[in-house]
Please model this.
Amino acid sequence: MSVADSRPPQDGPARGRPRSEAVERAITEGVLKLLEDGVPLAELSIERIARTAGVGKAAIYRRWSGKEELFVDIVRAAEPQSPELPGTSLRDDVVALLEQVRQRGLMTRSSVLLHNVIAQMKTSPKLWEAYRTNVIEPRRRKQHAILRRGQETGELRTDVGIDVMNDMVFGPMLVRAVMRPDADLPEGLAEQMADAVLDGLRPVSPPRT
Amino acid sequence: MSVADSRPPQDGPARGRPRSEAVERAITEGVLKLLEDGVPLAELSIERIARTAGVGKAAIYRRWSGKEELFVDIVRAAEPQSPELPGTSLRDDVVALLEQVRQRGLMTRSSVLLHNVIAQMKTSPKLWEAYRTNVIEPRRRKQHAILRRGQETGELRTDVGIDVMNDMVFGPMLVRAVMRPDADLPEGLAEQMADAVLDGLRPVSPPRT
Amino acid sequence: MSVADSRPPQDGPARGRPRSEAVERAITEGVLKLLEDGVPLAELSIERIARTAGVGKAAIYRRWSGKEELFVDIVRAAEPQSPELPGTSLRDDVVALLEQVRQRGLMTRSSVLLHNVIAQMKTSPKLWEAYRTNVIEPRRRKQHAILRRGQETGELRTDVGIDVMNDMVFGPMLVRAVMRPDADLPEGLAEQMADAVLDGLRPVSPPRT
Amino acid sequence: MSVADSRPPQDGPARGRPRSEAVERAITEGVLKLLEDGVPLAELSIERIARTAGVGKAAIYRRWSGKEELFVDIVRAAEPQSPELPGTSLRDDVVALLEQVRQRGLMTRSSVLLHNVIAQMKTSPKLWEAYRTNVIEPRRRKQHAILRRGQETGELRTDVGIDVMNDMVFGPMLVRAVMRPDADLPEGLAEQMADAVLDGLRPVSPPRT
DNA sequence: GCCTAACCGAGACGGTACGTCACGTCTTTTA
DNA sequence: TAAAAGACGTGACGTACCGTCTCGGTTAGGC
Model:
């Protein structure tokens, strides 16, 4: 299940002493504890994590190939589950997804935690790729599906690319929740944004006076 | 002019040998060369920069207090100048700013350079603050001013907060240009986005059937 | 028989699965193989020995308490048996013992093996003591007995301590065979040394002119 | 002067900050202190030495390529200077050299120190070679020279190889002083040994009755 | 034309962390 | 109960940077 678990694949029954789940837990909880104590991400060394978790360095390297892989797993674990979509209309589905992003922004902010870890990832192309593949792309695929269905039901214009529309519909909330820690995310924001932007993306623009 | 130039303030004429501008240039150009050669940001150590620039470590520490301060200066230097706004209409001004972001996205991508440096900054609150104050906020103030004037001229609805509208108008392009290196930024994208989103933000929403 | 076999003493018949002799053999032969392959003694780790022998580490620790104890047993096993002494005269007995040392020097050298292991032992006082007690002292006692009998038969002077004479008679060959891997040990060396040194240790030194 | 000083050879004036002699002293004295405190040689790690000396590991690796090279230098430094030879006769010169070996044995024993370090060296062929070249061989050359001159002056027989005679003359004291920590080395031992062994190596063996 | 202060490259300094390896112990399954 | 396998905490390995500190030497004013 873990992205970065590096145990070599093997057939047959496991041989030797199995890896302790307690160790796994001690490590991840150690990292979270350090972050919550306000330790800057840059000061999270493997040695310090091991010391905090009461664990040998080797126990960490046995599971992850480095600091970054470990962080990916921790972010993945903290990632909220994708919500059930109502499916009643394009507007309702869009609101549901926007609301998820908004919630995520609130959570991320309140627990200092993930914001920096995610930012940090961009410094390592390899890791960013892992994060994109495992977290971002699935979310994006779901968004595309919703928009495509909106086009089919005639709720959405067809003369703008799905990908561009995706950024127009979900980009504003993303920017607000992820890139601007000082902006507020009031209740009702999802509805407000959805209504306004979908209004500009209706299939036929009636003439105005 | 440099944010991080740490020469102690001093009265009277400079004494002793003045700092060599050639050294300054060698350092910044060394960093750019390394980045362009595809060296990951995480592998840019002060020692390596000094070696590449043919410069002593002390010469760097004399000018910046650390790696991060150096990076801030480099990003600032590479930041494009804000364009002149036509001022003919809300739509034209918005298109001009969106076009600037689009151009910046194209440039950043082609020169590998800044994308990661900016991401990196988030890991250092101090630096992110500096970047926000010096780069992001001025740009945002200009955007707000445009939108406010749009409200005054009746081109924009007044029942949505300026700040939210700002994200709705400029957020999509920002996401596309800064956060998604694989998305394309075709010509005409600025116009397309501006027209669609402004359509949803017109002051009066006529009833639909 | 093994010095370092650490099975706890126990009454009654052995219980549970008995230790496999094949494992014992695999371990000792693995060590010898590694040494003969030119692996430096310092690179002989328990882990590597176990890997080479196809054996678990625990199987080694069950039998010896550590690397050094294992080495003692291996050296002991390789030690040549003490020869029969002719007993016809002091000179003949001395030659026989010197010849044994010479042979041992030749053997040790050809099989790389033991020279370094013995040297290594000196770093562990405990082991050196074991080696001294089990290998060196018995040999020394036999040498002393011969010399003492030489004094009784009037073949050896009595005004020099047995211990000093022992070093004078056997020391040269020992130095040559054990401490100087590059010296040659030609046939007849034992006789040559014995004659010369015994000449200086005759009971009465007649006055010279 | 140090065997293992690994500074790359260089022309012209020294560049950069020169290496501190104080550091050199702190390291060697740290090692001696640890040994004198009874720390087993096997527990002397570079990290511990650095900690004891209040020095960074790099400062050690800058001077020696490893633990063993460091030890060679320490033994060399503790090695007594070769004595002036009287030159009055073969017997007097031999006594002088034997006395040196005896003294060395006494010292080595009293200061626990060097005995084990020297033994340790044999485990590393490379180091033993260094020790042999720098310490043993010079001493041996001096011994050979004395014996050769003894042959020329008619004090020594010529029908035994110099090398074999060397072991016969100096081997006993060497064995006693280096290989047998429990043997005593009384004053006068050098004279006693010299007289006895030289008696057996006189050029003409007069007939006996 | 000196003096002197600050610069310059080089590199040593005490530290900290890296990722690997071996230690001796412990915990699995299999025989 | 022993067997192989392999995870466990510990700690040393040798390397790379950190940011500071000497070195000898250079480069500008101000005298």
Observations:
- Residues 80-201 of chain C form a domain with the Tetracycline Repressor; domain 2 fold (CATH 1.10.357.10).
- Residues 17, 45-48, 57-58, 61, 66-67 of chain C lie near DNA strand E (CB under 10 Å from a C1').
- Chain C has two domains: 19-63, 80-201.
- The first helix of chain C runs from residue 21 to 36.
